[in-house]
Fold this sequence. Notes:
This protein is of the alpha/beta class. About 35% of the residues lie in helices and about 20% in strands. The protein is built from 14 helices and 15 strands. The strands form four sheets. Strands 7-6-5-8-11 form a five-stranded mixed sheet, sandwiched between helices. A four-stranded mixed sheet has the order 2-1-3-4. Strands 13-12-14-15 form a four-stranded mixed sheet. α11 (about 380-400) crosses α12 (about 415-435). The radius of gyration is 23 Å and the shape is globular.
Amino acid sequence: MFFDDVHIKPKIMPILDPAFRPTILENRAFIRAVALYEKSIPIKIAIERENNQVYIFETKVFSEESELEENNDRYIERLIKTILWIKGGWKITIGGSKKIGDFVKKTYSTGGLRAFDALFMSRVYEKDFEVCSVGIDEVPEELEIVPLLSRNLDGCRIGFDAGGSDRKVVALKNGEVVYSEEVVWHPKTQSDPDYHYMEISTAIKTAAEHLPRVDAIGVSSAGIYVNNRTMVASLFLKVPPDLFDQKVKDIYLNIQREWDNVPLLVRNDGDVTALAGAMSLNDSNILGIAMGTSEAAGYIDDEGNIKGWLNELAFVPVDLNPNAMIDEWSGDYGCGVKYFSQDAVIKLAPAAGIQLEEGLSPAEKLKVVQKLMEEGHEGAGNIYETIGVYLGYTIPYYAEFYNIKHLLILGRVTSGEGGNIILNMAKKVMDVEFPELSSTINLHIPDESDRRIGQAVAAASLPVIE
């Protein structure tokens, strides 16, 4: 018997997507069934990332002797994909079941169902992607390197925020902003990496003119960064691969050399956004989700630190409906990008009775829906209600991997009244389905004006001055 035949219906259905099957509900049903069944086995999953760090997830599945064993594969496949895109990693170790280990190895092999994910992780960590199967007692131990405490405001600091359409820089002296500027730039259309380097260098030099010295530089930048190196970043979209390797991977390390190797730290803009929220709220355990071109995210832990995880929630599966919309990049179904970005708005528009012109860009299509929302269009309101229901069922799934006290939603999709509808519907779902979490997770929409320079200030606080 497959769980596909008995899937759990949400108590609150998204009005425009009645086929929605929240991952959290079906995972919990699977786990309950395994717990009640005598033919079950423990499984330990280890995922290794940079600097020998290892994340461990323990669960149980049906044993090979069970008639329900055929349900294991989908549960394990969706679970591992989730962990991989939240934590990041280049090596998966499966302990406790060779059969499951072999299944995961085939899934992530060349030509396998998740070949895209394996190739992406190989690029990020500059290692061949591996999957191995061992006895449950042979799984490596968990190791997380404790990050240096952020929110450092001592000394003379520069914070640089590399946005897709403008770059921001601030100069701080003992926590006081003595200079700030925003400059329009066009990083995504430039193929010459020297353009990017000169823009970044100019911004930092301009800020430095307002300080007696430079003690540290912090950077917030869209993309994936490992040990201050640029591994994948849309800001360098047009740069050819050979020039990317030659001049982009170490672009911030070269900036650091230009400033006598003062402490410099680069973090993903999602993480720095969450840090800015933490500084504003004066609290920790914050997950920030930006709903814009894609779904970006960042996390601040209980100590107020950025963990260095990938937090690429756009690729995390939130819907187990096998007929859900496919993400064009990864080729997978039910992933967050189609639920928490402008793609979600566009996807839902036909069901809402809204016809969008084919020639419009995704951003322009979003603006059409937002204008209809302002005019009181019922279908536009239903789009935001549907996204809110998606979010209400997805926050508890994220909470399986993040300890969340505050959840911030931001980005162009959340602008105007639509953002309030999303938040209110998410809260309603959690009150009904997940009351234990609803009482402990606070939902927020940060003020956009507070974020503009606040993110650059948060970036400046990243490095520790030794």
